Amino acid sequence: MHIITTPGAMSAWSDEHRVAGRRVALVPTMGALHEGHLALVDEARRHADVVAVSIFVNPLQFNRPDDFTAYPRPIDDDLAICRAHGLDAAYVPTASDMYPSGFETHVEPGALATVLEGAQRPGHFRGVTTVVAKLFGAARPHVAVFGQKDFQQLTIIRRMTSDLDMGIEIIGLPTVREADGLALSSRNRRLTLAQRVAAVCVPRALDRLAEACSTGERDTVRLTELARSIVDAEPLARFEHLEIVHPDTLESLTTINDHAVAVTAVWFDDVRLIDNRLLSV
Do both 169 and 224 map to the same domain? Predict the structure, then answer.
């Protein structure tokens, strides 16, 4: 496995494979790798000849300095996981590689970034689109794979890739979950044992909402209240938001007539977990 630390070296590695006629896939991550990330890698292998994982904790997308500082960075473990899983390359740039002195250009994501997570975390998606554009520029992939757990992020990246004519196929993989339903996330490492047990209220709330939708409830206010009641019943959970929106435009819905997605964020002390559930009539 090649360990690559600079944008120029990453481009050279990709160009070598592209010239040889090989399809290149990129799986962007912020490290603290888990089975969900490896599922993305496996999906990438189905669409490309060589696969690279990027590992970079992007300071631009954190609106809380304490959250950035606390984010896990087990780089040695991550590289060992990459080797064991047969990755072709790991792109591990430093902050100074990504944002050298004088850096001032950013990618503005537009209206999709002003709602849901964007409303709660100002500047977050500006940081996401900027770093993903830079990762795409360095890795020059034919295809990139993202998890659907970050549903709004996936929607925004698809729009950016299309709007900027990047020519990259974006694949979204359904959320990988623990046996009890909790979505796999690097932030789960920061939960105490009691909080980890309590966190199952998040997928349970979404399951209850989806069940009610499938049995005929279409009013989004009633569905939202039903799901929130499950979170509110957990003493260690602090509800932030749950909204039901159109999966393409992210516009809030009052009634589910076709397809929709329920997206939520819940706090456990200073750990913020997000999840979602696709809904259809």
Answer: no
Integer Cα distance of 278 and 171 in angstroms: 16
Query: How many residues are given for the chain?
Result: 281
| Residue whose token pair is 């929709």 | 260
The DSSP annotation for 103-171 comes to --------GGGSSTHHHHSTTHHHHHHHHHHHHHHHH--SEEEEETTSHHHHHHHHHHHHHTT---EEE
Mean pLDDT per 10-residue segment, the chain (281 residues):
98 98 98 96 98 97 89 95 98 96 96 93 95 98 97 97 98 96 94 98 98 96 97 98 96 95 97 95 80
Known catalytic residues are 37
- How many Cα atoms are found within 13 Å in the side-chain-facing hemisphere of 46? 8
In this structure, what is the dihedral angle of CA atoms 62, 65, 71, 75, given to the nearest 10 degrees? 90
128 and 258, same domain (yes or no): no
Same-domain check for residues 112 and 233: no
Per the DSSP assignment, residues forming a β-bridge with 116 are none
Say how far residue 94 (Cα) sits from the centre of its chain.
20
Answering whether pTM is above 0.90, one says yes
Domain region containing 242: 186-275
CB atoms within 10 A of CB 123: 14
